[in-house]
Amino acid sequence: MDFLAIAFFVLGIILILVEVFVPGFGVFGLAGAACILLAVYLTEGDLKAALPKMAITVVVMAVLFPLAVQLMKRSRQMAKFNLQESLTTEEGFVSTGKKLSAYVGRQGRALTDLRPAGTMVTAEDERLDVTTRGDFIAKGSLIEVVATEGTWLIVKNAEE
Question: For the whole model, what pTM was predicted?
Answer without folding.
Answer: 0.47
